[in-house]
Specification:
414 residues, alpha+beta, seven-stranded antiparallel sheet, five-stranded mixed sheet, 14 strands, 43% helix, globular
Length: 414
């Protein structure tokens, strides 16, 4: 017989299924996040830390049990069955503390394991690993039910289950976009994240029903509306029009300070008051680098989406490239993967198109004029002359033009 949880799970529709039903009326769902800086009381912060710990406990417990069951029986312990077992376990003397926790913090920890295994089997990520309480970020996710998550814009507060109303701060941009009921949409869930530098954020996932955008025949798009981009290290990117955006190298600006603060931390007694104080100071510098990088990537991705209809770029193998120890730090600092992610979701929202060119396409070594391939080209050759037609090429701009041409070819054949 099917359990109640399994029956409820079958009744729930995915976003794709909901969009399929809404498409009949010319509508679709739009999910977006609203991330707010939170200023909880000491009691509220203590509860947040406990709920994050409960989420980590449920995640690690289910992962360990799932591995043990599979090793012993060859069967998979489903998340629904483990949730039932966990509910029974709450009556045990050693686990009564779970009754005081946010039940969704425990539930989402189990769901995160299932999602991790799904990504593993689809070869998107490695095998799931246990969570540690010593990482720079601790978090938990709670779900909306019976109006337990609310946002009060006027009082600048967010209501969370078992925590109550928490004071939050809106950025200038968030205030600028506040029109009538822009934040009165359906809240799906809230994720509370606690950073090692002491900052706390609440990210609300909001669901909105919008009209379907007009259908565009991308195969008929004009060439002047397509932009090719070659991502690099000396320049952040070079486009097919010859525009070069400098690589800001955020980590390089703070690397000396980070090394200095890290050396101070290494000389202190681990676990002491001074150690924790220095650890928090070091985390602030790391957060500053991350925020500078993210702000730059948001600005550049927004500019490109606003100014172009179609953007073609290479599908880079970043995981393989970082194996080069000389370039690994620079590659990770530039943030190519995050940039592509930002471009992709912004293009979808704006009804624009991102074309991914295969990573084995010889964009740098091929002459964009005659199509001749220069096999002897090395990474140090920034300017080269085509042996067939005699044209002189800037390596990066030539690559961007080739990526544009390949992107157009892909569009024409899809």
């Amino acid at each position: 017989m099917e359990t109640v949880i399994e029956k409820q799970k079958k009744k729930r529709k995915t976003v794709k299924e909901k969009n399929k039903d809404l498409a009949i009326d010319g509508k679709k769902l739009k999910l977006y996040g609203l991330k707010l800086r939170a200023f909880p009381t000491l009691y509220q912060e203590d509860l947040m830390k406990k709920f994050a710990g409960a989420n980590r406990f449920a995640y690690n417990f289910y992962l360990a049990e799932r591995k043990e069951v599979y090793d012993n029986t060859g069967e998979t312990l489903s998340g629904a069955r483990f949730k039932q077992s966990l509910n029974v376990l709450k009556d045990h003397e050693l686990f009564k503390w779970m009754k005081d926790m946010d039940k969704f913090a425990l539930e989402t920890g189990i769901e995160q394991v299932e999602a991790a295994f799904k990504n593993f089997f689809e070869k998107q990520n490695g095998f799931p690993r246990f969570k540690s309480k010593h990482t720079s970020r601790q978090s938990y996710t709670t779900k909306f039910t019976n109006n337990n998550i609310q946002l009060d814009v006027e009082k600048r507060q967010v209501k969370l289950p078992k925590i109550g109303w928490v004071k939050v701060r809106f950025s200038k941009k968030q205030w600028a976009h506040m029109e009538t009921d822009v934040f009165a949409r359906h809240i799906k869930r809230a994720t509370v994240s606690l950073q090692s530098n002491g900052t706390i954020h609440i990210a609300l996932t909001i669901e909105e029903t919008i009209a379907l955008p007009p259908t565009v025949d991308w195969s008929a798009v004009e060439e002047q509306h397509v932009l090719g981009i070659d991502l690099g290290l000396s320049h952040f990117y070079i486009d097919s029009n010859g525009v070069k955006i400098e690589n800001p190298r955020h980590l390089k600006k703070y690397i000396d300070r980070l090394k200095k603060e890290q050396r101070k931390l290494s000389r202190m007694v681990k676990g002491s008051a001074n150690y924790r104080k220095q650890q928090k100071k070091l985390a602030k510098y790391h957060m500053r680098v991350a925020n500078c990088r993210k702000d730059f990537l948001h600005q550049q991705s927004r500019k490109l989406i606003n100014e172009n209809q179609v953007i073609a770029l290479e599908n880079l193998n970043v995981k393989g490239m970082v194996k080069n120890k000389r370039l690994a730090q620079s590659i990770l600092d530039v943030g190519w993967s995050t940039f592509v992610t930002f471009l992709t979701y912004k293009a979808e929202w704006a009804n624009k198109k991102i074309v991914s060119v295969g990573r084995f396409f010889a964009s740098s070594k091929t002459c964009h004029g005659c199509g001749e391939k220069e096999t002897g080209l090395t990474l140090s050759d920034r300017i080269w002359v085509c042996g067939a037609c005699g044209a002189e090429h800037d390596r990066d701009q030539n690559a961007a033009i080739n990526i544009k041409q390949e992107g157009i070819r892909i569009l024409r054949h899809t």
